[in-house]
Every structure is written in C-alpha cells, then in structure tokens.
Amino acid sequence: xxxLYELTDEYRQLLEMLEDPDEDPEVIRDTMxxxxxxxxxxxxxxxxxxxxxxxxxxxxxxxxxxxxxxxN
Length: 72
Fold this sequence. Notes:
Layout: H1 4-19, H2 25-49, H3 61-71
Helix pairs in contact: 1-2
C-alpha cells in the first residue's frame, strides 16, 4: 500500500497527464482508478484504526444532535 506522500505524488502526475492533450484516455482512467482505490483503502483504515484507541468513542445520534445544538 502506498503512503499518502506517494499518493500525493501520483495525483500530481495525474494532473500533468490531464493537461497533456496527447495522453491516452485509457491510461488516465486506469491511473485514476488506482489512486481512487488506494485513497479509499486509506480512508477505511483511518476510520477503523481508532477502534484500538482508548480515548476515542462514537457519539450516538442523540448525543450528536445535542452537541450540534450546543455549538449553534
């Protein structure tokens, strides 16, 4: 799995590819899919990794509504 720094570099390369009118659209599509998949993997890992953190907890819908009301 790529690091976020590597994914950032791949994203920059993708932007350069998009600016090149001679670039093969299929190559661009494949590159986008690869980056997307890795970003999704990173996001899922980030959402589930804190299950092992004793200082993190979920808010119930009621708690979330109460919190939202208190800051608005």
